[in-house]
Design a protein that fits this description.
Layout lengths: L7 H14 L5 E7 L3 H10 L3 E7 L3 E7 L1 H8 L11 H10 L4 H17 L1
Antiparallel strand pairs: 1-3, 2-3
Helix pairs in contact: 4-5
Length: about 120
């Protein structure tokens, strides 16, 4: 890796990859600018890490990467913007990303109330 070309985003990606390889996290969501995607994908491919790309607006991309089982699960519903996920899908995604389960339960209940009130 050429130190001159290492962007802060690439450094964060490398840390996420390290955490994944050490088993700290099974699924990672990383958002970066379109012009950074090829570098990220190349790094993931070199390390044989499965990933999914999701466009975010015109300038950014979400990269989900990690365990194949996790990616297969989210592939069933991450086909639209994340703010359009149902409360159940949002809960599943948060849990897979390793977010605090109690906070995810609170978020789920709040989102469910808003959904049923509409």
């Amino acid at each position: 890796m050429n130190v001159v070309n290492v962007t802060p985003e690439l450094m964060v990606l490398c840390n996420h990859i390290y955490e994944y390889k050490k088993g700290v996290r099974n699924l990672i969501l990383f958002t970066l600018a379109n012009n950074q995607v090829q570098n990220a994908v190349t790094r993931l491919q070199r390390q044989n890490i499965d990933y999914i790309l999701q466009a975010v607006g015109d300038n950014n991309v979400n990269i989900f990467f990690g365990r194949r089982e996790c990616l297969e699960a989210i592939r069933t519903f991450v086909n639209r913007p994340l703010n359009k996920l149902s409360p159940e899908e949002d809960f599943i995604l948060g849990a897979l990303l390793g977010y605090d389960v109690c906070q995810q339960c609170e978020r789920f209940c709040e989102r469910k109330k808003r959904t049923t009130a509409s």
